[in-house]
């Protein structure tokens, strides 16, 4: 209806608990696109990571980088027409960098991770998204969603961790320039109760 190309690659981004998966599924259904979702339940490192950041941060980030790179290549080979849950850029710019800064990833591990990221993503052959949708909101609203979702490993994580991640996301999106950005306040819609509220985003 609004001339969105059928070969587009749209990425939904934002901090943990902000509603990326719901937005990804709803938008893909409305556009008749396929989805590329984070595979949280099959991740062999995620639960261990929340129990011991220092021990498992490098393993987790390398796993995510490999999985997301593989999916990005599959999307490109399929000719686009996808909405994907989370961008590959956040792996380095938010998560790996945060653990390096906090000392829960060693300088050696971070350097190794960055070399991988640079050789895989920062090349002219990598297919960047056509649009990044950034889901935004207040920290209190997002923290409430994390608690409402009720994943044990997230609920028992210190609030200070979520606040730091939130602040890093705010700084990151202000400087992100790999593709165009559409910034959306999570209080402007409720896709769980009213899936039709997705219609307002077509015009934007």
UniProtKB/TrEMBL annotation:
InterPro entries per the record? DCK/DGK, Deoxyribonucleoside_kinase, DNK_dom, P-loop_NTPase
Q: Which positions are catalytic residues? A: 85
Q: Using the record's annotation, list all stretches that form the Deoxynucleoside kinase domain.
A: 10-201
Give the molecular function GO annotations: ATP binding; deoxynucleoside kinase activity
| UniProt: substrate binding residues | 38, 50, 61, 86, 91, 154
Q: Does the keyword Nucleotide-binding apply?
A: yes
Kinase: is it a keyword of this entry? yes
Its keywords, alphabetically, are: ATP-binding, Kinase, Nucleotide-binding, Transferase
**Identification of the protein by name:** Deoxyadenosine/deoxycytidine kinase
Per the UniProt record, the source organism is Gracilibacillus halophilus YIM-C55.5
Organism placement in taxonomy: Bacteria, Bacillati, Bacillota, Bacilli, Bacillales
């Amino acid at each position: 209806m609004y001339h969105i190309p059928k070969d587009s690659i749209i990425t939904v981004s934002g901090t943990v608990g902000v509603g990326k998966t719901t937005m990804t599924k709803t938008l893909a259904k409305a556009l008749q696109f396929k989805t590329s979702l984070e595979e949280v339940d099959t991740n062999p490192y995620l639960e261990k990571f929340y129990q011991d950041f220092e021990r498992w941060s490098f393993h987790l980030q390398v796993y995510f980088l490999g999985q997301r790179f593989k999916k990005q290549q599959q999307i490109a080979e399929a000719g686009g027409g996808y909405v994907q849950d989370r961008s590959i850029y956040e792996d380095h710019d938010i998560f790996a960098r945060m653990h390096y800064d906090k000392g829960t990833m060693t300088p050696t591990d971070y350097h190794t991770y960055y070399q991988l990221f640079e050789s895989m993503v920062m090349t002219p052959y990598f297919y960047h998204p056509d649009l990044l949708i950034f889901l935004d909101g207040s920290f209190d609203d997002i923290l409430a969603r994390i608690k409402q979702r009720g994943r044990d490993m997230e609920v028992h994580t210190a609030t200070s961790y979520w606040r730091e991640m939130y602040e890093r996301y705010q700084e990151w999106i202000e400087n992100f320039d790999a593709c165009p950005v559409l910034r959306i306040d999570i209080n402007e819609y409720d896709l769980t109760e009213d899936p039709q509220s997705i219609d307002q985003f077509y015009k934007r």
